[in-house]
Design brief:
With 384 residues, the protein is an alpha+beta fold. It has two domains: 280 residues, no CATH class; 89 residues, no CATH class. The strands form six sheets. It has a six-stranded mixed sheet with strand order 1-6-2-3-10-11, covered by helices on one side. The longest helix has 16 residues. The chain is globular and about 60 Å long. It starts with a strand and ends with a strand. The model has no long low-confidence stretch (mean pLDDT 94).
Length: 384
């Protein structure tokens, strides 16, 4: 059995064929016989061409990936870029799948995806989940996936995006490039761990969410959503709502005291508020606050918790919410640095700016906003 190897490469070359070749050849230097290629790219590249080129050059039998709002590679945050991670050897087992029709039947798509992945017969591992971040029903998709795969797997990933144009995203395996879909891979046969956190903290009195309609919240504290929200955050300028919502999301506690974040994204004419992800009706949460230093520290702590599980980390994938990037701007590179440093700088690491994140505070996967999720694999040991 060959030893486990991992390699990464990235490129900002505008031509897709050249970028794919540069990134893949760089990754092959440290992983010459890959079993899996993971491909993240931004919306200036043709995903079908990128998939074709990476498959041809890497010769990896399996590929999974998506279009992201930005790519985290090397020591940089790229708003235009393409990155490849290759994994192989060491008993690695991989299966990939993609299912379309996500917006129409998210629960069914999750179940079909789970059936396909479970058919590989792996007894456990990490499930990499890459859905279209612009569709609704992503919590239901995760419920369907978990229903078929269960607690023997850990779940991690993030929503695909397109550099804030909100037009179309792509999700893909080596066989198909899709939109309105979810791509996924099972990584088994090597130890893996997932970390999750955000750094947001509750402030003020509870917020009572009343009636909702999909991603739209109609009522807060028994009033039109805008009026109830303004009672907690102060006067709301309609023209600045996106900025206010970015700084003042809602958080909903679980039984362990963790908060699932929900991100307000737009204000409608009738005073209802649209969120990035569905908010359950008749739920109780809090307005959340977080300054850049708290968010950066929390991101480093997520990576540090993952690091404790391993004698040596061999690879890591990071999914970091694009709204954290928009909030911190030039300071965001400090967040990526905190993650890299906590993992120990030389680890092959690749990441994406995502529209929602997949992760577990306990066994069941949840769709999060404004959160950092890290998957790592390696040799078990350390001071766990």
């Amino acid at each position: 059995m060959s030893a486990f190897t991992a390699g990464t490469g990235h490129s900002t070359e505008p031509r897709c064929d050249i970028a794919a070749r540069q990134a893949t050849e760089a990754a092959l230097q440290n992983c010459p016989q890959p079993d899996l290629a993971v491909l993240f790219l931004t919306d200036n590249y043709d995903p079908a061409e990128a998939v074709k080129r990476v498959r041809e050059i890497s010769r990896a039998p399996e590929l999974v990936g998506f279009m992201a709002g930005g790519v985290l590679a090397g020591d940089a945050v790229l708003d235009r870029g393409l990155a490849v991670m290759l994994l192989g050897g060491g008993g690695l087992q991989v299966a990939t799948a993609v299912e379309e029709g996500l917006a129409d039947d998210p629960l069914g798509v999750g179940r079909r995806l789970g059936d396909c992945l479970a058919g590989a017969g792996f007894s456990g591992g990490a499930v990499l989940v890459l859905p279209d971040g612009f569709t609704g029903g992503l919590p239901d998709m995760l419920h369907g996936l978990y229903d078929r795969m269960g607690p023997d797997f850990c779940y991690v990933g993030g929503g695909a995006g397109d550099n804030l144009r909100f037009y179309r995203t792509y999700q893909f395996t080596g066989q198909r490039v899709c939109t309105n879909a979810v791509a996924a891979a099972v990584i088994s046969g090597i130890p893996t761990e997932v970390g999750l956190g955000h750094g947001w903290r509750p402030v003020g009195e509870p917020v009572v969410v009343g009636e909702t309609d999909g991603k739209r919240v109609l009522e807060i504290d028994g009033r039109v959503a805008l009026e109830g929200y303004a009672e907690h955050v102060g006067p709301v300028d309609r023209d600045r709502f996106a900025e206010i919502g970015m700084r003042c999301p809602l958080g909903f506690p679980d039984l362990s005291g963790n908060y699932v974040i929900r991100d307000p994204i737009s204000l409608e004419e009738d005073g209802t508020i649209t969120f990035v992800t569905e908010v359950p009706s008749r739920s109780v949460g809090y307005v959340m606050k977080g300054d850049p230093s708290e968010l950066i520290r929390a991101a480093g702590e997520v990576a540090a918790r993952v690091r404790k599980h391993f004698e040596e980390i061999r690879f890591a994938l990071c999914f970091d919410c694009i709204s954290r990037y928009l909030l911190m701007r030039e300071k965001f590179v400090e967040e990526f640095d905190a993650i890299r440093n906590a993992l120990n700088g030389g680890v092959p690491l690749m990441g994406a700016l995502t529209f929602g994140e997949v992760g577990c505070f306990s066994a069941v996967p949840i769709f999060h906003n404004k959160t950092v999720a890290v998957l790592a694999g390696g040799e078990i040991g350390g001071d766990e």
